[in-house]
């Protein structure tokens, strides 16, 4: 046996001597690689549980493409909304209603302010989607205030429950020119439709006086990162269908110098009178609206609004003028409890808004409780007063110079949209 080993050693030595230097270098590299591989296998085996085989390597598979329906619905939000209240008027008006209110019109009554469905798909340029759309369906008491007044709609019943319905295209112009066609909520005035996003539960006189919605074409463009501009070409104020063949226009500027401060300046001009004998009255209506919101600190938010409106039925007619404004202060006691105060003033010197030459004021205090995600309760106490006796009293024909109301509002909403609607 010893002789055989000497023989093998001699043969190996002779074979190595017969190799060229390059062949010996390659053999040495192969031997080192084998040693490294053996060390790695030993380390892996040491980490595995005793007796457990090594897991097999899964076969590669092609990435699944999204289903057509899922792809089409990507970015679409569907949301539901319910807003109700109980309100009491201390005048105990014989009419059963609160004068000059937009939404909380019922006295001593449980009421559904509105129930709504909001479906929206916004454009997403990052993912190459330049089109979008929005649909807001509205039902309930607020529908009578916002939608389909016979005074300005030829067929009010047709569009009564269609609060918003518009399509969007972002044209590849500069930074992106956004074009909307359809019916949308007006941007005039700081207050809006959905109570959950407002300072108070009730709305000021200005929400009730300024336009609620428009139908037509809207173009918006981001001039800079802080300034954006919009131009509207519409049928008119609260006109889904045209009734005098004249197209009204609006220019809106939105400025946000910081994350805590924003300002809006809006101007509207149009002919808002019905055609008589197939001829449109030549008088114009003009609205100038401005509002500012400032988050002074993590707890305090302040806002203010100023408005001026003038209307003539004909170029030489005496004008009707309404002017005034509103101020808001909100203080957050906690993340879920907020206190808001509002004071509003509206000078209706020609009775354009109320039908009476008077100066109207409202002082409102609201406590908001965010009880859970998608559920909110509001307590509110409000006093309206005027220099004229215009508020209904307990007996028919009785008029008072003020009215005091109290209410409790409950608001539910749920869906996939986040933030303000």
Instruction: Kindly state the number of beta strands.
Output: 18
Sequence of strands across the biggest β-sheet: 1-2-3-4-5-6-7-8-9-10-11-12-13-14-15-18
**Content-based structural category:** mainly beta
| Helix proportion | 10-25%
The biggest beta sheet, please?
16 strands, antiparallel, barrel
Average of per-residue pLDDT values: 87
In N-to-C order, the SSE pattern is HHHEEEHEEHEEEEEEEEEEEEE
Query: Which stretches are poorly predicted, pLDDT < 50 over at least 5 residues?
Result: 1-18, 48-52
Beta fraction: 35-45%
What is the count of helical runs? 5
Distance between the termini: 93 Å
Q: Whole-number radius of gyration?
A: 35 Å
Q: Globular, elongated, flat, extended or rod-shaped: what is the shape?
A: elongated
Q: What report would you give on this structure?
A:
It is a single chain. This protein has 421 residues and is mainly beta. It has helices spanning 2-18, 21-47, 68-73, 141-146, 205-209, and strands spanning 76-89, 109-121, 131-139, 162-171, 177-185, 213-222, 227-234, 248-258, 261-270, 285-294, 300-311, 320-332, 337-348, 358-372, 375-386, 391-392, 399-400, 402-415. A hairpin with a 4-residue loop joins strand 12 (320-332) and strand 13. The longest helix has 27 residues, at 21-47. Mean pLDDT is 87; it is low at 1-18 and 48-52.
Give a topology summary.
Layout: H1 2-18, H2 21-47, H3 68-73, E1 76-89, E2 109-121, E3 131-139, H4 141-146, E4 162-171, E5 177-185, H5 205-209, E6 213-222, E7 227-234, E8 248-258, E9 261-270, E10 285-294, E11 300-311, E12 320-332, E13 337-348, E14 358-372, E15 375-386, E16 391-392, E17 399-400, E18 402-415
Antiparallel strand pairs: 1-2, 1-18, 2-3, 3-4, 4-5, 5-6, 6-7, 7-8, 8-9, 9-10, 10-11, 11-12, 12-13, 13-14, 14-15, 15-18, 16-17
